[in-house]
Amino acid sequence: MRLLVVGGGGREHALCWALRRENPDADIYAAPGNPGTASLATNLPIVADDLDRLADAADMYAIDLTIIGPEAPLARGLADRLRAEGRAVFGPSAAAAQLESSKAFSKEVMRAAGIPTAASGTFTSLPEALAYVDRHSEPLVVKASGLAAGKGAVVCATRAEAAATVRAMLEGRQFGEAGSVVVIEAFLEGEEVSVLALTDGHEVELLPASQDHKRLLEGDLGPNTGGMGAYAPVSVATPELLERTRNEILLPTLAEMRRRGAPFQGVLYAGLMVTADGDPSVVEFNCRFGDPETQVVLPLLDGGLTDCLERIATGGGVSPLRVRTDAFAVTTVLAARGYPDAPERGAAISLPATLPDGVTIFHAGTRLDENGVLRTSGGRILNVTAVGATFAEARARSGAAAGLIAFEGKVYRPDIGWREASRS
Ligand code: AMP
Q1: Which of 107, 136, 155 maximizes ligand 1 atoms within 8 Å of its Cβ, making it the mutation to test the pocket?
Q2: Whose CA is nearest to atom 19 of ligand 1?
Q3: CA angle (15 as vertex; 371, 387 as ends), nearest 5
Q4: Strand partners for 220
Q5: 62-71 mean pLDDT
Q6: How far apart are the two ends of the chain, measured CA to CA in Å?
Q7: pLDDT tens, 260-273?
Q8: Residue 55 contacts residue 81 (beta carbons within 8 Å)
Q9: What residues have CB less than 8 Å from 152, skipping those under 6 apart?
Q10: Per the confidence metrics, is the pTM higher than 0.70?
Q11: Residue 256 has pLDDT above 80, yes or no
Q12: Which one of 84, 270, 316, 393 is most buried, by most CB atoms within 10 A?
């Protein structure tokens, strides 16, 4: 079997790792991959949004199954392009990927399908947006509708702040075209949970529920980031909550997408807010594996991933994932000083010669220099994933291993999983 993983971050390293574990003899390619994927796959020097060269590579290497990691190539139609050439692809069409690439579209689908989500309005006109802000109570959340690398949602404590944010997006073009349409919505109180479902457009197979940590600093302070760490499973995501998520959110969304002629195939990622009453409400949909959630959910599988991805990509439905019920996973993201705005690059990274039990390191923003020295090369550098027999064990292992890795300017949160820890 010849597999191609598109992307080059921690999520893609974790995908290559999980695929290699299930398929010791497969030819796995990563485009562009990173120094971590290089030991599991053949890295191809093609960036994830170069559709022409990716299509050529799929041809040249006779790829049987392509798995697309990041949202940008999905939004640009990479899955459509490869499918039109007769290839099996795991990932939604550009039309279906609008569930992530257009928050305005996503809200419209949710409204049409009766999915629980915050009340909202969608605007292109500044006066109308400002009037909406005036009529609604604080706090409000203002979002650029388009893709903004996870930075397009601003929680505004006051109406004045919401008005200024709307202005910056619609008038100041703070997020360029992505912010030429804004969604303004009510603030939801509760605890966030990520539910990732593998789907053929009809049925869903759930991965263990996980929880990301968006803020840069300990105690959930500081600016929003792409995610500073995650853990799985999450105890607030009870079997009942997951059943409701399946029946009240995922399946109706898939039905609505089919009705619109844009069936969704791939990972439907529901970012939920679980209210104090235990009700799930959708904060956002993503159209791909989460990063860093993937780095904790895949290590909890005991098999079944490749089969499920392949079946979905070839139109054969979904197949069961084997989820470990005796294990917990925690990942701690090591970031570079200056992340998320202006991460410093180029620091030499020193990895410990041996890793503690249960620990796997996924590369996110690293590169090898001309002398073979591993250096920082991005915002999020490494993901330190640990699996343990208890949540506390996984957490302690991830934290301890994070401390053993050294590079100038290393930034990380020692409190990943603090909510879960405070419950146990
Ligand atoms: P999004 O880009 O829509 O995922 O939003 C990014 C982050 O902003 C989410 O992970 C939440 O932490 C926060 N957020 C977004 N929308 C809301 C909301 N309606 N209520 C509370 N927090 C929100």
Answers
A1: 155
A2: 187
A3: 95
A4: none
A5: 98
A6: 43
A7: 999 999 999 999 99
A8: yes
A9: 103, 143, 144, 145, 146, 175, 178, 179
A10: yes
A11: yes
A12: 270
State both tokens at 198.
Answer: 């593998």
- The residue whose CA has the least distance to atom 5 of ligand 1 is 153
Place of tokens 């990932």: 91
**Tokens read off for 385:** 């994933």
Neighbours of 6 (CB within 10 A): 32
Q: Please state, for a pLDDT cut of 70, what percent of the chain lies above it.
A: 100
274 CA distance to ligand 1 centroid (A)? 12
CA angle 62, 68, 70 (to 5 degrees): 145
List, as one string, the DSSP characters of 318-376: -----B-SS-EEEEEEEEETTTTTS-----B-B--SSPPTTEEEEESSEEE-TTS-EEE
DSSP 122-169: EES-HHHHHHHHHHSPSPEEEEESS--TT--EEEESSHHHHHHHHHHH
Q: Within 6 Å (CB) of ligand 1, which residues are found? A: 118, 141, 143, 152-153, 155, 185, 187-188, 192, 214, 271, 283-284
On whether the CB atoms of residues 87 and 134 are closer than 8 A, the answer is no
Whether omega for the bond prior to residue 32 falls within 30 degrees of 0, making it cis, is yes
Q: Decide if 320 contacts 205 (C-beta within 8 A).
A: yes
Q: How far does residue 153's CA lie from ligand 1's centre (Å)?
A: 6
